Amino acid sequence: MNLRSFLHGRIEAAFEAAGVAGAEPMIGVATRPEFGDYQANGAMAAARTARTQPRKLAEGVVEALGDVDFAETLAVAGPGFVNITLSPAFVSAHLANVEIEPTLHPERIVVDYSAPNLAKEMHVGHLRTTIGDAMARILEALGHHVIRQNHVGDWGTQFGMLVAHLEDVQEAAPELKDLEVFYAQARRRFDSDNDFADRARRTVVALQRGDERVRAYWRRFIDISLAHCRSVYEILDITLGDEDLDAESRYNDDLPNVIADLESAGLVTVDDGAKCVFLDELETPLIVQKRDGGYLYATTDLASVRYRSEHYRADRILYFVDSRQSLHFRQLFAVARKAGFARETCKLEHHPFGAILGRDNRPFKTRSGDVVKLADLLDEAVRRARALVTERNPELDSEEADRIARVVGIGAVKYTDVSKHRASDYVFDWDAMLNFDGNTALYLQYAYARIRSLFRRGGIDPRCLTDAPAISNDTERRLGVSLLRFQETLEQAASEALPHYLTGYLHGLAGDFTRFYETCPVLNAPAPVRDHRLKLCALTGETLRKGLGLLGIGTVERM
Length: 559
Known about the structure:
This protein is an alpha/beta fold. Helices cover about 50% and strands about 10% of the residues.
């Protein structure tokens, strides 16, 4: 259940009973234990309408609620807050399981993320695509129909240069391992060899016109590039497949139609030979066709908006793209609306993310100043995790140590990324992310492993614990309340496209479990308390596993 929504409904009804119709209470998680579990606000705003004092109104709300079954205490605090402490019986009754409840209003949601430029290998900045993947998983878990879209860059002028170079070195193409080296070689030739540069430009034209020989070389390069992406996706457990590809080239044939439709709508102005869209709400125009007749990213993006709105009938289109593209998306959405490319009921949302920085607070690079390849960074994560796991648990056999290191290393990198507010930059720090303390994947994975160890030591199958746990003290109650907040956390993350709400929740849950484990004996507790506490442990372990899984992060049975 969504506790926050439940309490909102009850408090809203109490406002009406207190004589204030239409009041909109705000329900928040209490910031300190002495404030209870939740804190309801809204009396101050409603008091102005009712022409009364906020505290007096809050007291009237508590009186209207009366002797409710969900609260152990209801207390008015400050100028008009209502502190709510949930009752042990209410918490216990809702803890038989913590299954994720599907939404009553499922939507068709397009999630656009990753979108690497196929001219190069994926670099450390593409790690931030895990935000989009986590959101796709969360939305699906809540019952929405999610359509993943990987809008890879596989078109444009740079591919003329790359195809021309590939044509010259075709015998070595099967051995093409390093796309960065290949790109650098092609770029040097383009900059230093006029004949090659002219041929590269002619190759672009031939590619756009559908020349089969050029298209064949282009497809070979794209296939090699996509193979690199697939490898990284597999390591990161990113849920993007070939069926989710939405390449720029897909829209090539539709681009003249986009321009024609914009012109028919009276939106195109020719400025210095280029076709632009000027709108009053935009500080700068959106260029949709260059002076030489070439198209831009904006043209392709307009075509894709229309396709997603009309073909997929999307209710929401979520773009998880670098914050540096914010202006582009404001322009794109405004023009798409004005041109009628997006249905009125289709929400267009850019959810920007910040940059990954080095310790010098500059973009994260290698010591030599090169861009960090994502594949190399992930290899380093597993290597460091292997050393950590072996040091902590030297009796592990090599195969199990390798398996645990992979889960721990990749999980550490992914969790660090999604645990930060999406829009924030953050400093990449190996020591911080591979730490058993703090808000890290390692801390949560260790909490899960400790729970699994408890059941192994007791020789107990948690699936046999079918009854809801009875709550006998406040530490148990606090852990139970934390477990019941899972649903509301997922719904909040889905609504705002902020997966760090989930990581914050999981970290808090693990902290509540640690306090419970340290103060409440489990295996040595007398019956029936023992089974009740084991059930709390089982629910915590399952919630940690589910929550990490929604972030694309694995768990291990021991560490």
